[in-house]
Amino acid sequence: MKSSTFSAIGKAYRDREAAFRRMSGLASDALRLSKRAIFAMHRDDLKDARRLLAEASAQFKACEKNMRSFNGLEEAGVYHAALEEYAEALLFLRYLDKGAFGLIEARAMRVSVYLGGLSDATGELVRHAVRRATDGDQGEVERAYKAAEQVVAFLLDLDLTGNLRTKFDQAKKNLRTLEQMRYELSLRK
Questions:
Q1: What is the rounded average pLDDT for all residues in the chain?
Q2: Spatial separation of the C-alpha atoms in residues 179 and 168, rounded to whole Å
Q3: From CA 6, how far away is CA 122, in angstroms rounded?
Q4: Measured in whole angstroms, how far is the alpha carbon of residue 2 from the centre of its chain?
Q5: Of 9-18, 61-70, 160-169, which has the strongest mean pLDDT?
Q6: Per-residue b or e along 37-59, where b marks 16 or more CB atoms closer than 10 Å to that residue's CB
Q7: d(C-alpha 150, C-alpha 156), whole Å
Q8: Contact 37/89 with Cβ under 8 angstroms?
Q9: Going by C-beta distance under 8 Å and a sequence separation of 6 or more, which residues neighbour residue 144?
Q10: pLDDT band at 24 (very low <50, low <70, confident <90, very high)
């Protein structure tokens, strides 16, 4: 025999799980769109990158609407990972547009999201610099190096731990890669 308490708890659980599955699907789509935007930026197709980021933003709006009824869903790993990828894409686009990192869309400014995206964006700087070096643009390699150097110096002051420490270590490796690239280009002069 079912009690009304069991029925209410069961319904609440099923509703939350359904909301989580919807949010997970929307967040996964946003993550995929953000990755495609980064790829478009590496192809110098900023128009397509902006379109893809607008689509990702719409997915996040749908996620946020879906999560309003259930506390804690915004802390789900899939949502956080999608936001971090989105932050990385927005930061890389800002770098391409303005030559520096800085403020991005408010939803991606949560401290852990921004720091993770910023660390990961240094990898995009490396890929961008490699492409530009191949084209003979040593100035762009230098600009990417200075941007990565600024990021690493900023992150170093934060004494990061956990997942952000791992991302910071990767950012330092990216900076070393850019240093090596600068050195090799200097030998060609």
A1: 92
A2: 17
A3: 51
A4: 47
A5: 160-169
A6: bbebbeeeeeeebeebbebbbeb
A7: 10
A8: yes
A9: 125, 126, 128, 129, 132, 178
A10: confident
pLDDT of residue 5: 86
Give the integer Cα–Cα distance in Å for 24 and 31: 10
Whose tokens are 């946020």? That residue is 64
Residue whose structure tokens are 């689509």:
55
Residue type, 84: E
> What DSSP string runs through the chain?
---HHHHHHHHHHHHHHHHHHHHHHHHHHHHHHHHHHHHHHHTT-HHHHHHHHHHHHHHHHHHHHHHTTSTTGGG-HHHHHHHHHHHHHHHHHHHHHHSS-----GGG-SHHHHHHHHHHHHHHHHHHHHHHHHTT-HHHHHHHHHHHHHHHHHHHTTT--HHHHHHHHHHHHHHHHHHHHHHHHHHH-
